[in-house]
């Protein structure tokens, strides 16, 4: 990671590379603007913790923001030419009608946003009814805090992830797909549990490995069960028409045959 290299070695060229890669990401997904804000906060945090001159902070911030936005500029110009809005569909009312309407389908999203619910968000995205993540992240979380206490090198990754978690927390509707760009950081924090020496290390490693294997087998079994009804169609044992006839909710919906 170029940004991590810059953080550890302080080389401006690494920050330049990080800005270019973020600009490429900005050109593919508007939600990456949240990452732009996160990295801006981290650059400011770096200057505070490393006693950097204020002039360098201005140069780094200005350069990082300008380079990132310049790389994404062609795509924003293309959006402006075709829609009249470089950040389409933002500021068009579309998001308000669709994304916010979807958020309203989760009534507790609005009333439960408080200090306590932020720290229970790990439970929320682990057991979200529509899009579950592996419970390994949640199970390893207490040990991860111990690792961060011992390994200072991982604290930047932790700060980055919890800033990203904050951004995800306030992004309606509550969907785990918005966490996808930040899962590598969480994965790195999770596997770091194996990098330090624990009391009774062999026993703890056996427990952790057993937990990983158990969760993997349960996940494979549950996915197989959920997709079992599609196998006859995939292997040609059942026609698509028969499959749709058995599984479409004709009692509550209306379907049109357009063939």
Structural description of this entry:
- This protein has 259 residues and is mostly helical.
- Helices cover 67% and strands 0% of the residues.
- It has 14 helices and no strands.
- The longest helix is centred in the first third of the chain and has 30 residues, at 54-83.
- It is flat and about 70 Å long.
Q: What low-confidence regions span 5 or more consecutive residues with pLDDT below 50?
A: 104-111
Radius of gyration: 23 Å
Count of helical regions:
14
Mean pLDDT: 76
Assembly annotation: single chain
Major sheet = none
Helix content: 55-70%
H-E order: HHHHHHHHHHHHHH
Number of strands: 0
Strand content: under 5%
**In angstroms, what separates the terminal alpha carbons?**
50 Å
Give me the secondary-structure category.
mainly alpha
Keywords:
259 residues; mainly alpha; flat
Q: Which helices and strands appear, and what pairs or packs with what?
A:
Layout: H1 2-9, H2 12-26, H3 33-49, H4 54-83, H5 94-104, H6 108-111, H7 115-119, H8 121-126, H9 136-150, H10 155-169, H11 183-191, H12 201-227, H13 231-234, H14 240-247
Helix pairs in contact: 1-2, 2-4, 3-4, 3-10, 9-11, 10-11
């Amino acid at each position: 990671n170029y940004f991590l290299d810059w953080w550890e070695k302080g080389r401006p060229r690494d920050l330049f590379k990080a800005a270019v890669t973020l600009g490429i990401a900005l050109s593919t997904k508007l939600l990456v603007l949240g990452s732009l804000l996160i990295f801006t906060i981290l650059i400011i945090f770096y200057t505070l913790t490393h006693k950097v001159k204020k002039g360098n902070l201005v140069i780094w911030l200005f350069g990082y923001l300008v380079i990132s936005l310049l790389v994404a500029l062609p795509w924003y110009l293309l959006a402006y030419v075709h829609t009249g809005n470089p950040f389409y569909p933002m500021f068009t009312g579309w998001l308000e009608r669709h994304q916010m309407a979807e958020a309203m389908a989760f009534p507790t999203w609005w009333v439960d946003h408080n200090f306590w619910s932020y720290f229970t968000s790990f439970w929320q995205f682990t057991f979200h009814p529509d899009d579950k993540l592996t419970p390994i992240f949640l199970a390893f979380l207490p040990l991860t805090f111990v690792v961060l206490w011992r390994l200072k090198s991982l604290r930047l990754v932790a700060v980055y992830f919890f800033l990203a978690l904050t951004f995800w927390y306030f992004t309606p509707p509550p969907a785990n797909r918005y966490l996808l760009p930040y899962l590598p950081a969480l994965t790195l924090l999770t596997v770091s549990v194996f990098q330090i020496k624990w009391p009774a290390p062999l026993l703890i490693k056996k427990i952790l490995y057993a937990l990983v294997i158990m969760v993997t087998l349960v996940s494979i079994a549950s996915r197989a069960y959920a997709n079992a009804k599609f196998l006859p169609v995939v292997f040609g044992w059942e026609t698509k028409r028969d499959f749709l006839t058995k599984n479409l909710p004709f009692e509550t919906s209306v379907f049109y045959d357009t063939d």
